[in-house]
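Field reference: sequence -> structure
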Amino acid sequence: MAIWEKLYRFPPRYGPEWGSGGIFGLKYYKDVLYYTVAFEGEAHFVRDEHEKIYEFDLVGEKPTSGGDTYNAVDVVDEFIYFGGWIHAPAIYNGKGHASTINFVNKYSHIHEYDIENDEIRLVWKDSIHHPTDWAGEVSDILYDPYNDRLLIAREDGHKNLGIYAVDRKSGKSELLNPKRSLKGAIIHDNACFGVGHNFTNGLEGIHCLDLITGKWETFPVGDSVDGAPFIRPLLGDMASAYNRVFAFVRGGLFVGNPLNGEAMSFFRLFEFYTFYAPMRTNALPIGGGLLIAYNSMHDAIYQPRKEDEKEFARFTNTIVGPSVLVYIAPPMVKIVGAFGARITSIEKAGGKILLGTNTTPNTGALEATPFDTGSKDILVLDEKILQENPPALSFSLPLIFPSIAMTQYSVGNFGGIPLEGYKEPRLIIYADKDNELSVYEYDLLLPPTQAYEERFDIKKGRNVIDLSSFSGIVSFSLKEPDFEGKVRIELR
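Structure field:
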């Protein structure tokens, strides 16, 4: 029996937290498939002969909840190292003026699974034992092969944030850099991590640790290839390929190698003035390229209570299109799949691509339930989707999305749509006024060049722009804001 034939779906079950977690950390290594089901607080290890389910009782008492919501996992020799956070035991405060979780038992953690002996060991844990605040979650694990240690990124939390080194034998931890960081990637002999507050402004640069000398260098992000600014580039994941760092963010991706003098240029991709983003997922190296998901709904406010929360609720609950699976093979960017609310984890196993999926997003503070609210499963696809024609799909969105969450931005570029493999793509604009549309055409060319611009007159009413004469990636902008207009992008 193939290992994926033993996989099953996970309907809503016990797990006090905010909204829904997901299936995270998918890792197929030495005939073992590991993944964590959050918020149920279950780590699964599937072999041909049996399945082990670990409920984090080495951290604290049951019942537990949480586990991992950022895909913190790496492998070394015969070991799988998995991290994240866990409530042990979980405390649900119940409904009242607000529905909350007590964080006094929330721990950040790193565990080691010994494949040869089928054993789990707690390597490290950390907690500040506070009812409303928590120690920085482990959101990424990178193995440092020169110093034989684990580098962990910690941004989501209130204390103990930054980049830490953890000795994988003793569990002793050391703070290497206090700047909060969510994700990182190894490039050549450096480990590079995102810099910036990811829950406000987004990625502002990267800082790189020379694994040999121990010295740090910090580099700002560069400009966009279509000439327009980027807004709130919240970091989803980072990866290394083509001797460059790839940082996947809300609205696009940054690519470059500042260590060699090449700036981190911004390529607009799926910019819709909403929370559509490559967040709470992972980039998978495959076929020499990278596979990443841009998610339709990963985080959202469920019950806004204040005016600013109402704006952010509209921003996070506006659904403009399906989640897409995108294959990055510069200069090509290609859509290879269309799915529901979100893809939480991506892995390759025996000619298959495994996707952790979920119907429901994470929600915000004061919106806790005593059970996970999403329906989760692991979808099994053939690797051949990378070489097949892309799926037919469409996006529908307001032309302008004035919002506190988007810093009241009124005129800017949107789109960033990969046209690879589509024969009849088109843009339909329902305009409330006469206007002028600019179409920007560019590839994921490395090093980059500026986009080509072509302009079209837009009349009040319905306008159809044939995009079949364009190639690569296209983004758009209007000369004047149109607060009542809307757009439909059709890819066929």
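Note: The longest strand covers residues 79-87.
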